[in-house]
Amino acid sequence: MKTLVLNAGYEPLAVVSFKRAIVLVMNQKATVLASDTAHPVWSISGRFDRPSVILLTRYVRIPHGRAVPVSRRGVLRRDGHHCGYCGKTATTIDHVLPRSRGGADSWENLVACCLRCNNVKGDRTPAEMGWTLRLTPRAPHDSSWVVRGVEGGQADWQDYLGVAA
Asked: Which keywords label this protein (predicted)?
């Protein structure tokens, strides 16, 4: 089980193990905002609920410019696993401007794509094909993208991830 760590300003910082979260709480470096009562942790001195979301007591300065690295999984997640051309389920990614023509591996040049559209498009641009993109590809800016592990998070995390966004 994982725990979402929030900065003192309620912005998501990290996802840590519940053991690390308990240590932070016991050392009074964090307070528990939400816990899982169904799966308690037992110790010699008693029973503790597993923390699901904790809030740091002191503010941790985050350097600006934490860019989200481009990845295949990230592009598919950004586009909701839907093809940028036809809207069907996407399993691959496509370069809008092909790499052979100088297209970069960037958030603005990559879209999720179904296998059929990817094969038909080949080494051409959407304009040459007469196609239009269903969305404008851009880098994700939501705070949940900066924190690794949030995409496989728990339902009670959504309330805290929406605050900073």
From this structure: Endonuclease, Hydrolase, Nuclease
- 59 and 6 both lie in a single domain: yes
Q: β-strand 30-42 against 12-17: which pairing, if any?
A: unpaired
- The per-residue pLDDT for range 44-97, each reduced to its tens digit, is 888 888 899 999 999 988 766 667 789 998 899 899 999 999 999 999 999 999
**Residue 134 forms part of a structural domain:** no
Of residues 25, 14, 9, the one with CA closest to residue 153? 14
Helix (H, G, I), strand (E, B) or coil at 79: coil
The Cα 165–Cα 84 span in angstroms is: 24
Q: Which of 55, 121, 132 is nearest to 92 (CA)?
A: 121
Phi, psi of 97 (to 5 degrees): -95, 115
Is there a single domain that holds both residue 78 and residue 118?
Answer: yes
Q: How many domains is the chain built from?
A: 2
Q: Which of 72, 107, 109, 115 is nearest to 90 (CA)?
A: 115
Q: Indicate left, alpha or beta for 159 from its phi (over 0: left) and psi (-120 to 50: alpha).
A: alpha
Note the pTM of the prediction, 2 decimals. Answer: 0.62
Range of the domain at 89: 72-129
A 10 A CB-CB count for 26 gives: 10
